[in-house]
């Protein structure tokens, strides 16, 4: 096969990469690359639609079929042209946060990582070495700014967890007032933008399924969380870091999400999604978002849309992303689907809060104290 290479384009791209690597955003280079080197027309994810933010949040039903069909075939789609959203600013402050002294970050660590701290669910999590396919540093932010509701030790585990679901955010205090305030401003806005997107997605799915009651399961979304993520380059590797599926080295294990995910990958590659039994690179979100749903939503919708299995492969550069997990209300019914069928989650849990009580210890051992997961002795 004869392949024509535009040597001038190669030189321009290389020169720009050397220059642009010194500034925080590589988006300009990404755009130029797509102009000089058009996308592979045969890449299956080139058919994944990009949905206008304005149409989504304003309930333009002309987008419903596109969203629904993409969620059935691929399990995800993109949202673009997001007003008031600045991906470059988010990336700048994300990187600045993770570059802070360890002592400053550990002052925000969840109780699992520092027993002196009060925050249990939201806050900082350091990189845990020798953790197999989990290799990331994180900082979690929620939608709650008022003090965490109080509870008594004699309360039930479910009532205690209900209070934790509304846990107040913790924020960095660096001594640089301008940085601290801008950091909060950027990510508070980021949470609100993503909530608006997630609510628009839920309404669109409900319209497609003619199931308006589906929307009512997300009125409170107390557990929803924005996660800043840094994936360092591994300094050493072992076999347990490799995928059992195809032996690829991973920094995030293969999994399906649980509810609704609004994902920012900036210009970073590494994310892969399973499509027709093969993991395929997912194009970066750049200035927009990647939207997918998880197994609970798949089940509630009677498998009409799918929870895509995905992973992050290890890359040779430090990678950053921001997932936002939009969850049903704590007391939302997840036990029955929109048709009234018993769901898989419903075999053990009536409401979302009960499901989280079992789920969190399985994915984050020691995150919750025993009194938050069991009523023994109460």
Please name the defining characteristics of this protein.
378 residues; alpha+beta; eight-stranded mixed sheet; four-stranded antiparallel sheet; globular; disordered N terminus
Q: For the report, how would you describe the main beta sheet? A: 8 strands, mixed
How many E-type strands?
Answer: 12
The assigned structural class equals alpha+beta
Rg (CA only): 21 Å
Which spans have pLDDT < 50 for at least 5 consecutive residues? Answer: 1-5, 17-38
Number of helical segments with 4 or more residues: 10
User: From N to C, what is the helix and strand string?
Assistant: HHEHHEHHEEHHEEEEEEHEEH
How would you briefly describe this protein structure?
This protein has helices at 7-20, 27-36, 53-57, 64-73, 87-98, 102-106, 157-165, 177-209, 295-300, 352-363, and strands spanning 50-52, 76-80, 124-125, 137-141, 225-231, 250-255, 260-264, 271-275, 278-281, 289-293, 310-313, 319-326. It is of the alpha+beta class and 378 residues long.
Structural write-up:
The strands form two sheets. This protein has an eight-stranded mixed sheet with strand order 1-2-10-7-12-5-4-3. A four-stranded antiparallel sheet has the order 6-11-8-9, with no helix packed on it. Helix 1 (7-20) runs antiparallel to helix 2 (27-36) and helix 5 (87-98) packs across helix 8. It is of the alpha+beta class and 378 residues long. A hairpin with a 2-residue loop joins strand 8 and strand 9. It has helices at 7-20, 27-36, 53-57, 64-73, 87-98, 102-106, 157-165, 177-209, 295-300, 352-363, and strands spanning 50-52, 76-80, 124-125, 137-141, 225-231, 250-255, 260-264, 271-275, 278-281, 289-293, 310-313, 319-326. The chain is globular, with a radius of gyration of 21 Å. It contains ten helices and twelve strands. Residues 1-5 and 17-38 have low confidence and may be disordered. 31% of the residues lie in helices and 16% in strands.
């Amino acid at each position: 096969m004869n392949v024509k290479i535009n040597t001038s384009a190669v030189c321009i791209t290389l020169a720009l990469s050397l220059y642009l690597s010194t500034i925080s955003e590589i988006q300009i280079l990404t755009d130029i690359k797509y102009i000089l080197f058009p996308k592979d027309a045969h890449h299956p994810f080139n058919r994944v639609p990009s949905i206008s933010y304005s149409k989504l949040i304003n309930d333009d039903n002309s987008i419903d079929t596109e969203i629904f069909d993409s969620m059935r075939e691929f399990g995800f789609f993109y949202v673009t042209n997001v007003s008031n959203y600045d991906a470059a600013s988010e990336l700048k402050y994300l990187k600045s946060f993770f570059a802070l002294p360890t002592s400053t970050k550990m002052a925000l660590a969840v109780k699992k990582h520092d027993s002196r701290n009060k925050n249990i669910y939201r806050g900082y999590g350091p990189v845990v070495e020798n953790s197999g396919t989990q290799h990331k540093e994180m900082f979690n932010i929620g939608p709650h700014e008022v003090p965490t509701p109080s509870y008594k030790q004699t309360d039930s585990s479910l009532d205690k967890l209900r209070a934790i679901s509304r846990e107040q955010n913790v924020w960095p205090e660096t001594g640089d007032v301008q940085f601290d305030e801008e950091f909060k401003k950027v990510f508070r806005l980021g949470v609100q933008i993503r909530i608006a997107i997630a609510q628009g997605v839920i309404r669109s799915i409900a319209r497609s399924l003619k199931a308006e009651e589906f929307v009512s399961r997300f009125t409170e979304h107390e557990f929803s969380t924005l996660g800043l993520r840094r994936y360092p380059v591994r300094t050493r590797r072992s076999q347990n870091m490799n995928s059992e599926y195809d032996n690829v080295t991973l920094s995030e294990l293969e999994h399906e999400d649980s509810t609704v995910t609004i994902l920012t990958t900036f210009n970073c590659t590494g994310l892969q999604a399973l499509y027709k039994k093969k993991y395929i690179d997912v194009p970066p979100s750049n200035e927009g978002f990647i939207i997918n749903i998880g197994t609970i939503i798949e089940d509630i919708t009677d498998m009409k849309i799918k929870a895509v299995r995905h992973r992050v492969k290890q890359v040779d550069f430090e990678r950053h992303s921001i997932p936002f997990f939009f969850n049903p209300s704590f007391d939302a019914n997840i036990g029955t689907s929109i048709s009234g069928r018993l769901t898989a989650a419903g075999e053990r849990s009536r409401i979302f809060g009960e499901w989280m009580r079992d789920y969190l210890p399985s994915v984050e051992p020691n995150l919750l104290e025993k009194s938050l997961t069991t009523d023994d002795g109460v």
